[in-house]
Amino acid sequence: MNKDDFEYAFEFSKVIREPARFIDTFGLTRFDFLMASELMDSVGQVRVRAGVIEAQKPQIIKPQSYSDFDFEGFSQEAEGEAKKFMDWLKDKDQNLAFLRYGFEFKKKETREEIVHESLESVIAKLEEEADQSGNPALAILEGVDDTWEVGLLKFTLEMIKRSTSVNVHDYKRSGLL
After folding, report:
1. Is 177 contained in some domain?
2. pTM for this structure?
3. Which domain holds residue 60?
4. Residue 138 lies in a domain
5. Which one of 2, 121, 128, 141 has the largest count of C-beta atoms within 10 Å of its C-beta?
């Protein structure tokens, strides 16, 4: 995957439905995901991937320890791209305050199927299934098929950003910060 493929996948991947929970401050957090992506060379065909992301409890680390992030379970190529992304964020001078916490992500229990419908129809059905399941840890994502792990990486980084203020509050309340 080259830089342009990565940036394209990052830009066009999106979270359709966020989980109704944050990354737990003091324990393991498990998120289920459903990701829909149009097949590149086929009209009216969508790949739906389902799986689990686990975030270990946040660890207070020194700000210079950004290299402590571990993306276990991702393909070797995706791990390399994740590290490149961290460098890219630094180069773009993004706010890295949320990276004060080290997270270990595990992608596991992934399965997939091809659905012969439009992307919009598939996403609508996934949202309906999510409503019926009542699963507060379920995320629905849309991604680019051949670089789908970039979309999963984007989701995990957004969850870190979303959870940081809650985690900081919990650490302060517990006297750890």
Report:
1. no
2. 0.74
3. 3-172
4. yes
5. 141
